[in-house]
Amino acid sequence: LSPLDKGIFGAPTPAQQPAPPQAPAPAAPAQVADPWAATGFGQAAPAHPAQPPHDQASFASQPSASPSAGSYASRDKAGVPDVPDLKLDDTLGLPTTGEYYEARIAARTLGAMFYTPSDLSDDLLSRVPPNVVASLGDRPVVSYIAADSAAFNAGVHVGHVVLQVNGSDVSEPEGCAYAIREASRPMTLRCYIPPHLKLTVCEGKHKVKYDSREMFAPCTAIEWKTKYVTVGGIVAKPWMMNMYYSKVSFARFAAGTDYCVCRMMPKTERSSAILTHLQRDYDIAIKEAHARRRISVKIKQFDLRGARIVVKHRDGKPNLVDYKTERKPWFYFTILPEKGYPIKISSHSLEGLEPVYAAVRKFVRKDMQDRYSGQLAESFGDDGTQGVNQRFGERSVDSYWK
């Protein structure tokens, strides 16, 4: 089965009987993590209330060529240390510092997708300690939640682990999908929030510019377009960057009551309403891809293989542009693909831009390393001796002077 078969949108999944019931295990409260520790800009965290342990933290980026104060710090998977003295409970074998909860759902459609922890260890769970990921086994991890879905409204979020469906244990995504479809309603899901859960998010609403030859920001703010940008994800390969915005659905939105109400909203609320609409296109694409139907929404796609990132600062921070019509400066960066015009992506804040920026940086760096190692292997062989003179480095002696 492909990963798209591991969800709850009505697509068929091979039947699998759920395991017998198992008693839940109590747990202590999870540790609180500060998501600002991952921003990599060397700035102090703003004052705000303590966030729950399942707060979605964004990517940490690759190091720049000249590390300095405020430059991006490397936080690849290899750099995430194990949790020392991780204690597991005797009943389920899960970390004792995690949290358990129950969600009651009456709707037939859940609006969620599940993967195994190993499927998500390189992206969504890349900043979770490896021994915590290993302790989850093959249990179903929520990897996608549709906006305003039954699962979301019941308190189930991305990164949570489903343990039981109506009292019956589930041990892997396919069995979880089958149990949820066959369960009587209202249905009770027993879920688990792993400790040290910092999710890697690589999507968001941005202003973009991709239809001109200019390498840096355009002269006016009106030249940017609003898109919901994702890097990789469920409906795309890891090297694809998708931008969602359907003219047809927005025309319906603009012609309806929602748009009339939206125009009378304050600017902040209006932006939130438009963002909800953009996310709706993304949700539609997810559902149609899962059902193996033709995607009806408009998607702008870009291939990141062989691409480069262009920024003015040597420390790797994004560029800055200040428009007279805007209250605050915009941060942006430029992607130079192998084919096509430069792609410029912007946001009003570093925090808003950082998830997509760091996701692109991560793939571009890995792609460059793979290409470089491939060229070395092609030129010199796997052991590095192909095409090299075996007597290279020895002192040469002219036979005339013997």
Name the poorly predicted regions: 1-5, 8-21, 23-78, 246-265, 395-402
Number of strands: 14
Overall helicity: 10-25%
Level-1 CATH class name of the largest domain: Mainly Beta
In the CATH hierarchy, the third-tier topology of the largest domain is known as: Pdz3 Domain
Compute the number of helices.
8
Estimated structural class: alpha+beta
Q: How is this structure best described in words?
A:
- The chain is globular.
- Strands 7, 8, 9, 10, 11, 12, 13 and 14 form an eight-stranded antiparallel beta sheet that branches.
- A hairpin with a 6-residue loop joins strand 13 and strand 14 (343-347).
- Mean pLDDT is 74; it is low at 1-5, 8-21, 23-78, 246-265 and 395-402.
- It starts with 98 loop residues before the first strand and ends in a 22-residue tail after the last helix.
- The protein has 402 residues and is of the alpha+beta class.
- The chain has three domains: 1-33 and 52-200, Roll (Pdz3 Domain), CATH 2.30.42.10; 202-244 and 298-373, Pleckstrin-homology domain (PH domain)/Phosphotyrosine-binding domain (PTB) (PH-domain like), CATH 2.30.29.30; 246-295.
- It has helices spanning 117-120, 130-135, 150-153, 173-182, 247-255, 257-263, 267-290, 350-380, and strands at residues 99-105, 112-115, 141-145, 161-165, 168-169, 187-193, 203-209, 225-231, 240-244, 299-303, 308-310, 319-321, 330-336, 343-347.
- The protein has eight helices and 14 strands.
Question: In terms of topology, how is this protein built?
Answer:
Layout: E1 99-105, E2 112-115, H1 117-120, H2 130-135, E3 141-145, H3 150-153, E4 161-165, E5 168-169, H4 173-182, E6 187-193, E7 203-209, E8 225-231, E9 240-244, H5 247-255, H6 257-263, H7 267-290, E10 299-303, E11 308-310, E12 319-321, E13 330-336, E14 343-347, H8 350-380
Antiparallel strand pairs: 1-6, 2-3, 4-5, 4-6, 7-8, 7-14, 8-9, 9-10, 11-13, 12-13, 13-14
